[in-house]
C-alpha cells in the first residue's frame, strides 16, 4: 500500500476546512464546493497518494464523488495518465485539463482527460467536438474566461463569453458544464472578487438563456491557494489547489 508522504493528508484536511469555513461564511453548503488537486510538477506517485488521501477524507465525510485533478500541460497529463487510469476507470477520479490547450494537442488530451476546463475559442471547441463525435464519446468542457483582462492569461474576454459558451454548448460530443477563470493577481480583494462575480454573471446569463445544451452549465471553477475564500464567497463550485496541498513548486516553472 502506498502511503502518502507526511503532510499531504493533513494539508488536504486543512484545505477542506478552509473551503468549508468559506462556504459557511457565505451561507453556502460546503458540499457545493469541490477541491480540484492542481498537480503540475508533481510526480505520478505523489498524485496517486494525494488522490488516495482525498478519497479517504471524502469517504469519511460521506462524500462518494470522484476526486478531481487538473493538469496544465498536455505532456504532464499524458505522462501521469497510466498511473491514474485505474482510478479513472473505477469512477474515483476525473482528470481535467486546466492549462492552455492548442488545437494540435486535442487527440493527446482526449486520450488522457475526462474534462477540459480551458476552452477559449470556437475553433478549439470544434476540434474537440469533431474528435469526440468520431470516438462516440462525450467530453465535459468549461469555457475559460479572462475576467482580469491580464494579457498573460488565456481565456475569452468576458464580453464575448456568453456568445462563445452558447456556440460551444450546441456542439455535439461536448457537454458544457460551466466556466473557469484564473483570478486577478492582486492584493485588492474587491477587485479580485469583482472578477469572480463577473464569471458568476456569465454563468447565470448562459444558464438562464434556454439555449440548447446550456442547462448543465452550472460549475464555476475559480479560486486557488491564495484566493479561494474570495472565490467561494462569489459562488465557486470548484477550487483548484496546488501549493496548499503539495507545497511550493520549483521556481523554474
Ligand atoms: C497551478 C494552478 C492552480 C493552483 O495554484 P496554487 O496557487 O498552487 O494553488 C490552479 N489553477 C491553475 C490553472 C493553475 O495553473
TrEMBL record:
Keywords: Pyridoxal phosphate. This is Pyridoxal phosphate homeostasis protein. Pfam families: Ala_racemase_N (PF01168). PANTHER family: PROLINE SYNTHETASE CO-TRANSCRIBED BACTERIAL HOMOLOG PROTEIN, PYRIDOXAL PHOSPHATE HOMEOSTASIS PROTEIN. It comes from the Bacteria. Pyridoxal 5'-phosphate (PLP)-binding protein, which is involved in PLP homeostasis. Belongs to the pyridoxal phosphate-binding protein YggS/PROSC family. Residues 12-250 form the Alanine racemase N-terminal domain. InterPro entries: Ala_racemase_N (IPR001608), PLP-binding_barrel (IPR029066), PyrdxlP_homeostasis (IPR011078). It comes from Isoptericola luteus. The modification N6-(pyridoxal phosphate)lysine is found at residue 40.
